[in-house]
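Researcher: Going back to the complex we discussed earlier. I've cleaned up the inputs and rechecked each line, so this should be the final set. Can you rerun the prediction on the complete assembly and write out the structure?
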Amino acid sequence: MNIALIGAGNVGWHLAQALQSAGHTVTAVYSRTATPREELSRLLPQAQPISSLNLQSINAEVVLLAVPDAALATVAAALQVKPGTIVAHTSGSQPLSILAAVACARTGVFYPLQTFSKSKAVTFKKVPILLEATDNETLQELQALAQSISETAEPVASGARRQLHLAAVFACNFTNHLLGISRQLLLEAGLPHHLLQPLIQETVAKAMLHHPYLVQTGPAVRHDQNVLDEHLHMLQQHPQLQELYRLLTQSIQAAAEKQ
Amino acid sequence: MNIALIGAGNVGWHLAQALQSAGHTVTAVYSRTATPREELSRLLPQAQPISSLNLQSINAEVVLLAVPDAALATVAAALQVKPGTIVAHTSGSQPLSILAAVACARTGVFYPLQTFSKSKAVTFKKVPILLEATDNETLQELQALAQSISETAEPVASGARRQLHLAAVFACNFTNHLLGISRQLLLEAGLPHHLLQPLIQETVAKAMLHHPYLVQTGPAVRHDQNVLDEHLHMLQQHPQLQELYRLLTQSIQAAAEKQ
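Model: Rerun complete. Updated structure for the full complex:
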């Protein structure tokens, strides 16, 4: 398929390359600023870097919007495409209806559920792509496109996708932050971070096998008050981490009581 | 070596079996209650389940204390061993000095840095064991014991071990709780939890390669206020999760500002 990509951030960066690897052609890359669209276009031999949202002269059956959630409504309102083009956004949190403003288009959602950084390659085959569309034909075309780059392509309606995105914030963004805090604490003690790697891997492996609430370990769930007090004392130079420690401990204890 | 194990909880359960697999003999298993010591002893052909902390008639060069942190001081005070026995505790948070009360013993720490649940097997070779001892000879004997079951056995003093344990609470116990919250949110939306597995695995894989603060993604670090407000609204039935969401968001933004 011929695809135009709006947005050259982390999602667009990986998505465009996965599409190209699967044999599709990315014909145009739009971004507001010049550097990202030119950098990404250089990786896509047939892509033209563009600075206008009027795509009526661009050869593309599908236009994918990989822009920040906050910019989506504005971009959708400004976008002009050939009649019959499929326009799909890639956001986990935004509804399909945000694309209602796009004239003459069939609209959909093409949400790759993954965390993307330009600095790290991603195995796209393993990235679930969650789909939605205004009509069944568009859904089927998006599904075919998704299945060409991923093993998992499933229709998920706006409400469920929004909840999935919230769950993903806890499982990914917040988890990453906790891993960052632990790394910071190790650095402060002059300890190598590789010491914690087997623990982190085991934590995640166990969470795949069992509901994490049922395999919770540590001083909070044991109500080991001496250790909890000592940890809070050790964090006294970091009042925000202290507050986070306190709240996570309470939340662990509350979840355990409900089991 | 002949080893007596005090405590038949999650740590003792896995440690005893790893020691036996490496060719050591667990000669006795103590626990306060009958069921765990008998269940564990059944897995260890030469182990005698015992209910007294007087081990003077037990054949053991090393006594390992795998009891809850809160019980450690009491158990240490009640323990009686043959002169010259090595007594080591397995706690991340407790100092070596807590064993000063054990008469006639050489004391140490033998801390396996991992999360243990009886329901899941652990590859002990990959579990770092952190060691400490009152004298060099004892340290060397504990190191030989640790190296017989693990690839990583390193001396770490009480202060650094305590900080490592605090970091492990963030990286493991708190992370597990966040994974539990995300699972709960998926269940509430009727979504299968396998959808999030590639995301969780990628999050952890990326955190091994880069400092997590430098690869933070998501609405918090983007200051995407619309999404943040919507997520807080979606959590209104869960005030504790709402508070956690707010605090983690602030903490992510504060960490990003310091970079």
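Model: Worth noting: Chain B touches chain A through 97 residues (CB under 8 Å).
Researcher: Good, that matches what I expected from the previous run.
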